[in-house]
């Protein structure tokens, strides 16, 4: 991998644009000089003053900034020992699961780190070792915690830093809920303008690799429409306005050869998989991607979407003018919301050998050190979860300047999990002329916004209905139970399982999943569990034991509801109804895959009445039986809502409704509590 540190420019949180900000500080990094985050930047450990060598004085110096805006702390920095302070709630991020993060930091920096006691809001961290080691460790810690800094603090610091120009406050706007947030549109546009000279030095991206087969070119519009209707009613359109000069949407290919006739080695790889024909999304996506257009695929896992974006990516890597060995940094980035999905994509990627293309999977909980080593050796494809990607980008282990083909997989899920800032930060410096692909199971406003920011005239391919249409190959059963009866009913069901049955049991909380797993073990029923409290290695083992049949019961939280591909899963049990109706669809969709049928069994208790109406819609759409009791539940809930709204209206004199949408009493709390 080429040396590239000196190419780094300030990252997005430091929103003072290069042209207007004071000259960035210069400092040594790995023995090289680079421009970048200076020690006066914007992270939590910089609350306190640096360079106090007097030793022994831990007194806080709250008044230093003229009475209380920013918090400054004195620290002891006695040659080979330095104490820094971080917010207590962020210490977990520095320690990592099972201490993996702190071990990484110690290994990388060669500093010794001691986490001290937390005194209320702050905890002290002692760094020991050589000056270089301490400074490296401090940088790494800053990198880990800065993402999580409240917007208000970032704003304050940026504002302070830009007083001379007075411009950076222009990059904030007031959100709908009144908070000050970064105006990414403006900031990206400004950044691109000021980075233009840098981008101009890069080789143009080669994007067009498609030669339309004469048979495909000869298809009439009526034939194309009929093919789309017959293939799951696939819909294809420009996402945003048609503009003059845009090429017409290409016809779908019907065979692998029609897509890859000029790439026999790709065809060989496909033949090895024994697939009969392209899946609908592949038929339509390959011509679009091979000719270099941006694509939005509204499709779920199981539709063949990974291969739809992967094969054009391989051709894209090989087709650039600079040979891949000589390129600075990797070419393709695939971002995925969860470790499981990232690993699943990685597995799919590793099935296709083409021109020695190498990939790496970067995910939190995996061996960070090892991941950094692989990146440093040189890779062409990076598959990453947003947190770890951002971590390595910020720590300057990953050069993103040459990413020219980017995939945001399951974008809706990434937004649900709160990854938008990490996505935006990671993409901030990526060249704007790249090709961008996005997949999403749904099309909410957040995903649309992301598409507007990062994509150029995308073509959208919708596979299946955009509504919450549960898979039609699953028989969806509903069972009414009291909360206290759930466990017993579940055990009864499991005792009557056939030896060939494979079941996922979805629980609402990690604690419930742990409890159920323990109870099953005590009863001698073998099972595995998958939730956010388990170490990555255990989560991977749980999945692979399910896939290879070592166990046939998996107890999980919603971390497993999307993207997990266990082909012969026969049953999905919703022990707890999910917080959001979308999640119901994703859970149910874990079974009934690859042409098979499946059964879902959903326990409904009186607490779930707020979801009854939405559930009825899904059941009806999929031609499932709708129990009378569910209808009654929905009607009772609506009547109660009306009554409450009326009472509230009378109380306040305004008469405005509740929160609507069936969520008001179902607890529309935080989504990502797995
Ligand atoms: P995905 O939707 O990418 O998660 O793919 C789900 C599964 O479908 C993966 O195991 C793929 O290997 C498989 N697959 C991809 N393309 C095809 C195809 N054209 N025919 C049959 N299976 C496929």
- What is the beta-strand fraction? 5-15%
In the residues, how many domains can be counted? 3
Inertia-based shape: globular
CATH class of the largest domain: Alpha Beta
Distance between the first and last residues' Cα: 37 Å
Keywords: ATP-binding, Helicase, Hydrolase, Nucleotide-binding, RNA-binding
Pfam family, one: Helicase_C
Protein name: RNA helicase
Family: Belongs to the DEAD box helicase family.
Question: What keyword list fits this structure?
Answer:
674 residues; alpha/beta; Ribosomal Protein S8, Chain: A, domain 1; Rossmann fold; 3 domains; eight-stranded mixed beta sheet; six-stranded parallel beta sheet; 23 helices; 36% helix; globular; disordered N terminus; disordered C terminus; binds adenosine monophosphate
Can you put this structure into words, describing what you see?
This is RNA helicase. Residues 161-172 have a biased composition (Polar residues). Its EC number is 3.6.4.13. Helix 2 packs antiparallel against helix 3, helix 10 runs parallel beside helix 11 (305-318) and helix 14 (386-394) packs across helix 16 (420-427). The protein is built from 23 helices and 21 strands. An eight-stranded mixed β-sheet has the order 8-15-9-14-13-10-12-11, sandwiched between helices. It is globular, with a radius of gyration of 27 Å. It has three domains: 3-147, K Homology domain, type 1 (Ribosomal Protein S8, Chain: A, domain 1); 214-462, 3-Layer(aba) Sandwich (Rossmann fold); 474-626, P-loop containing nucleotide triphosphate hydrolases (Rossmann fold), CATH 3.40.50.300. With 674 residues, the protein is α/β, with parallel strands linked by helices. Adenosine monophosphate binds at residues 275, 278-279, 282, 301-307, 565.
């Amino acid at each position: 991998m080429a040396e590239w540190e000196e190419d780094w420019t300030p990252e997005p949180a430091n929103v003072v644009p290069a042209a207007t900000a004071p000259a960035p500080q210069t400092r040594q990094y790995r023995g090289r000089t680079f421009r970048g985050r200076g020690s006066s930047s914007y992270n939590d450990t910089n609350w306190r003053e640096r360079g106090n060598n007097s030793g022994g004085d831990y007194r806080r110096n709250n008044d230093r900034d003229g009475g209380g805006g920013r918090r400054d702390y004195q620290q002891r920095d006695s040659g080979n020992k330095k104490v820094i302070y971080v917010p207590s709630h962020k210490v977990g991020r520095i320690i990592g699961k099972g201490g993996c993060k702190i071990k990484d930091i110690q290994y990388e920096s060669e500093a010794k780190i001691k986490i001290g006691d937390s005194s209320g809001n702050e905890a002290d961290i002692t760094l020991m070792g050589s000056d270089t080691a301490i400074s490296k460790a401090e940088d790494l810690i800053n990198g880990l915690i800065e993402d999580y800094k409240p917007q208000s603090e970032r704003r304050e610091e940026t504002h302070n830093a830009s007083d001379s120009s007075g411009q950076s406050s222009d990059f904030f706007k007031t959100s709908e809920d009144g908070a000050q947030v970064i105006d990414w549109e403006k900031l990206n546009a400004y950044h691109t303008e000021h980075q233009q000279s840098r981008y101009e030095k890069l080789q143009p991206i080669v994007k067009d690799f498609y030669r339309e087969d004469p048979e495909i070119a000869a298809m009439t519009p009526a034939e194309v429409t009929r093919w789309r209707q017959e293939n799951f009613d696939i819909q294809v359109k420009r996402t945003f306005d048609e503009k003059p000069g845009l090429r017409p949407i290409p016809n779908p290919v019907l065979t692998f050869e029609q897509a890859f006739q000029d790439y026999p080695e790709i065809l060989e790889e496909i033949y090895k998989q024994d697939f009969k024909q392209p899946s609908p999304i592949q038929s339509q996506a390959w011509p679009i991607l091979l000719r270099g257009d941006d694509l939005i695929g509204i499709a779920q896992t199981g539709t063949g979407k990974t291969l739809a974006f992967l094969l054009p990516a391989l051709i894209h890597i090989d087709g650039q003018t600079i040979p891949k060995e000589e390129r600075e940094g990797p070419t393709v980035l695939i971002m995925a919301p969860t470790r499981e999905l990232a690993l699943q994509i990685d597995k799919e990627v590793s099935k296709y050998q083409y021109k020695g293309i190498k990939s790496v999977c970067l995910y939190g909980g995996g061996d960070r050190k090892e991941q950094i080593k692989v990146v440093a050796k040189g890779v062409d494809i990076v598959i990453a979860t947003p947190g770890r990607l951002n971590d390595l980008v910020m720590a300057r282990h990953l050069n993103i300047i040459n990413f020219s083909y980017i995939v945001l997989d399951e974008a809706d899920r990434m937004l649900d999990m709160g990854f938008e800032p990490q996505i935006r930060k990671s993409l901030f410096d990526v060249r704007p002329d790249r090709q961008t692909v996005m997949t999403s199971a749904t099309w909410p406003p957040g995903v649309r916004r992301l598409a507007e920011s990062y994509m150029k005239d995308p073509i959208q391919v919708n596979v299946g209905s955009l509504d919450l249409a549960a898979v039609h190959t699953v028989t969806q059963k509903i069972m009414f139970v009291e909360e206290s009866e759930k466990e017993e009913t579940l055990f009864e069901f499991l005792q009557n399982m056939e030896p060939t049955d494979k079941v996922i049991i979805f629980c609402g909380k990690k604690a419930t999943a742990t409890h159920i797993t323990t109870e099953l073990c005590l009863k001698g029923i073998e099972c595995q569990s998958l939730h956010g409290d388990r170490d990555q290695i255990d989560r991977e083992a749980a999945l692979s034991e399910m896939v290879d049949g070592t166990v046939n019961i998996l107890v999980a939280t919603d971390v497993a509801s999307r993207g997990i591909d266990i082909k012969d899963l026969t049953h999905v049990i919703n022990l707890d109804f999910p917080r959001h109706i979308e999640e119901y669809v994703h859970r149910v969709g874990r079974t009934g895959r690859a042409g098979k049928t499946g059964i879902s069994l959903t326990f409904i208790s009186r607490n779930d009445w707020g979801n009854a109406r939405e559930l009825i819609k899904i059941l009806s759409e999929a031609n499932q039986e709708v129990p009378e009791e569910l209808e009654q539940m929905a009607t009772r809930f609506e009547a109660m809502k009306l009554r409450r709204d009326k009472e509230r209206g009378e109380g306040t004199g305004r008469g405005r409704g509740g929160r609507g949408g069936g969520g008001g009493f179902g607890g529309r709390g935080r989504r990502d509590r797995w």
